[in-house]
Amino acid sequence: MDKSTGKAHGPAGGQRNQRGRKKVHGIGLVMLGAAAVLVLTGLFLAARWQYLPGMTGRPGAGGSSRTPVLRVSPGTYELGQVSQAKGIVTVELATANGGEADLVIREMETSCGCTRAALIVDGKEGPWFGMRGHGEWPVGWSARLRPGERAVLRVQYDPDAHGIYRGPIDRIVIIYSNDPQQPQAQVRLSGTQVP
User: Fold this and answer.
1) pTM as predicted
2) Hey, how many other C-beta atoms are within 10 angstroms of the C-beta on 8?
């Protein structure tokens, strides 16, 4: 006991502040800091939960986290110089389902009547899709690719479709599917038309 103040000190009594309360030492601050870190980490993880790979929707909302993923390679195809005298140019692009659920391609369309596209699955060519509103339109067609399954996207460009034309070519094929990240995937063909 301190004779001048009449207050206890030392290990048994502990130090007290002016109001008579015990002072918080290093151990209390460490515990407070640890609790703050745990709370902040929990908040960070909860905020990031919705962005984990393969997750769709809200956590705990039920349903499947498996989704289809449409892959077409290359995404842009360089035709180079396309000779009008040589006629129709046909290219084939690798197509696959890179996801974990069935990919369903419902239809396709092109940006111009000079271009058309068909999907080949299991060696069977589907109908030709062109520019919407120009010519016959396939109705009721769809193709299903299982996870990991491959197909071929066959695209044709007809240099005679516009008569005598010289200059840049920039055409797009739009593929409509159930891929939630890109329900309307685009593939671009570019080049230069020459005589």
Assistant:
1) 0.66
2) 12
